[in-house]
Specification:
alpha/beta; three-stranded antiparallel beta sheet; 9 strands
Length: 259
């Protein structure tokens, strides 16, 4: 079934144009630590230096690991450090909601749009039920890549549970640019077909980030260097959608070489 083009146009129309927009997007699966605070500070400084917009987004799609009170700690820590945000769950803004669980319905639409574009596919394998991207450059062949449309339709009609996976090209390379590390090129065959949409209808961290960063008009993405391994897959998602890729700034670990 074709997706609703009006829905996607309406979402695009909400994206602010012509200004620097950064975001701090913590997950309330643990309490704030110094690494989180550094990321918040860098994103805040970039926005303030360019007279741009600083956004707070709460990434709570991993419902099974939420820590009670963690969101309150995020608000309190940022307030005590003077890191005021221009858009967020408590102040609103043109690209809300700013809590990912409240954006649940739109992720499925974008995942299915990727399926229509050939950049993703339905996977009915049992092994994928709780699978999320681990960040390792490792691919396991998935038989669902080769399912015919008739087989897919029959499985969907039968109500079989599924995830939606990214269809990584099996040949060629992907190059992305990072402010800290420069150009990095990886062979596509080293990348795995990561899960984008889980069986419960919620997105994985990596997919939600790409969709929300685009829909919120984020121009600069600051995150830890542990996400460098996922960056080529982000690029492939942006390219599949035809979206502009934001400026990446990956930061080395705060506690490097500590024992």
């Amino acid at each position: 079934m074709a997706t609703d083009s009006r829905f996607f146009q309406d979402m695009e129309d909400r994206i602010p144009k012509g200004t620097i927009r950064t975001r701090f997007a913590p997950s309330p699966t643990g309490y704030m630590h110094v690494g989180n605070l550094r990321t918040a500070l860098y994103t805040w400084l970039i926005a303030r230096h360019h007279h741009g917009t600083f956004i707070l987004r709460i990434e709570d799609t991993d419902q099974g690991r939420l820590v009670e009170g963690a969101t309150d700690v995020i608000y309190r820590t940022m307030a005590e450090c003077g890191l005021t945000h221009d858009e967020g769950p408590d102040v609103g803004g043109p690209t809300g909601p700013y809590i990912q669980s409240e954006r649940r319905d739109l992720y499925g639409k974008y995942a299915k749009l990727l399926v229509e574009k050939g950049a993703a596919y339905y996977c009915f394998c049992e092994k994928t039920e709780s699978e999320e991207d681990s960040g390792n450059f490792d691919r396991a062949a998935d038989p669902c890549r080769a399912l015919s449309q008739e087989e897919i339709d029959a499985n969907l009609l039968a109500g079989m549970p599924y995830v939606i996976r990214q269809r990584i090209p099996q040949e060629g390379t992907t190059t992305f640019h990072d402010v800290s590390f420069g150009d990095i090129t990886v062979e596509n065959k080293t990348l795995d077909d990561q899960v984008l949409l889980k069986r419960d209808g919620l997105p994985t961290y990596n997919f939600a980030n790409v969709v929300d960063d685009h829909l919120m008009g984020i121009t600069h993405v600051v995150r830890g260097s542990e996400y460098l391994s996922s960056a080529p897959k982000y690029n492939l998602l942006y390219e599949a959608f035809g979206w502009e890729i934001p400026t990446y700034v990956h930061c080395s670990p705060v506690m490097r070489d500590q024992h």
